[in-house]
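User: Let's play a game. I give you a shape written as tokens, and you guess the letters that built it. Ready? Here's round one.
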């Protein structure tokens, strides 16, 4: 993305909309690694009085471009920004991360048709296709497959990738940038909770705090996390990268600071609403 961390309001910056607003903690970490917000602020996540709330609040946090969290709205934001850029003669790009469960909101499809109708080549949607939503498998609400074919039918360029493979992610983002008049969608196949054995693919951990016992369990950071940190931060600020890497590796580092006492609570039972729910722990 074209972005200057020292000037988050730069009119020509690329925009990112976290349409699946509940994932904003990941964005806070990215903004902290870029130096837009202080790293020390991260442990205040979701605490009363903190500006780092559980859903994005653009009025409080620099680098947040829209107040999302009510699912389904982000692509409409992105379209508006792309049209504004066209009217103002600015060539920035707009990226929008959408959940596969979120796609069950009709507004997503209205917005997708709008992007294509207005030839918004500056818009890139990324679908987090993890097969899960809040309590069950995504298909328990409505069948969303085949995701890429549906977007293609509405006039989008499509690409499917392994969302945990950083090389594929970078390649797909470069591919999206080539477009001038057709919006692009990257369907990223992912595993929810990737990297933490008892959370992976387990709907019970959607927004669940960890019990003290589970907090004591050993976490294994694997998969794309450290490579992702390496690529993103080495491209921007090597110093921030080093600081974050030390923090992630350290037992008293970022991960444990995230688990503040206020967030400890009971872990809900997995839902049995969907007969095929992957609810084993
Ligand atoms: C309009 C709206 N309805 C319901 C919710 C509650 N909600 C929060 S996250 C979520 C699940 C979304 O699933 P998905 O988009 O697949 O995201 P994932 O769980 O995979 O991160 C739901 C239903 C919401 N935030 N907004
Ligand atoms: Mg999902």
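Assistant: Ready! My guess for every position:
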């Amino acid at each position: 993305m074209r972005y200057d961390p020292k000037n988050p309001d730069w009119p020509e910056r690329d925009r990112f909309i976290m349409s699946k607003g509940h994932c904003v903690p990941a964005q806070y970490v990215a903004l902290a690694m870029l130096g837009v917000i202080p790293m020390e602020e991260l442990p205040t996540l979701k605490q009363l009085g903190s500006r780092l709330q559980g859903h994005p609040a653009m009025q409080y946090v620099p680098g947040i471009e829209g107040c999302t969290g009510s699912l389904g709205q982000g692509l409409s934001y992105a379209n508006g920004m792309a049209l504004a850029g066209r009217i103002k003669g600015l060539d920035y790009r707009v990226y929008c991360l959408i959940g596969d469960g979120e796609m069950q909101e009709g507004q997503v499809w209205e917005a997708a048709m709008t992007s294509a109708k207005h030839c918004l080549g500056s818009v890139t949607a990324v679908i987090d296709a993890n097969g899960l939503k809040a309590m069950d498998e995504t298909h328990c609400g409505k069948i969303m497959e085949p995701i890429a074919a549906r977007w293609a039918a509405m006039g989008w360029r499509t690409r499917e990738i392994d969302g945990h493979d950083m090389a594929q992610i970078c390649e797909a983002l470069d591919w999206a940038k080539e477009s001038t008049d057709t919006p692009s969608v990257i369907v990223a196949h992912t595993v929810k909770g990737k990297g933490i054995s008892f959370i992976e693919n387990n709907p019970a951990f959607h927004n669940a705090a960890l019990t003290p016992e589970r907090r004591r369990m050993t976490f294994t950071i694997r998969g794309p996390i450290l490579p992702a940190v390496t690529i993103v931060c080495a491209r921007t600020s090597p110093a921030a990268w080093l600081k974050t890497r030390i923090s992630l590796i350290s037992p008293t580092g970022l991960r444990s600071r995230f688990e503040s006492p206020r967030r400890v609570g009971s872990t809900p039972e997995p839902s049995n609403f969907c007969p095929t729910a992957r609810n084993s722990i």
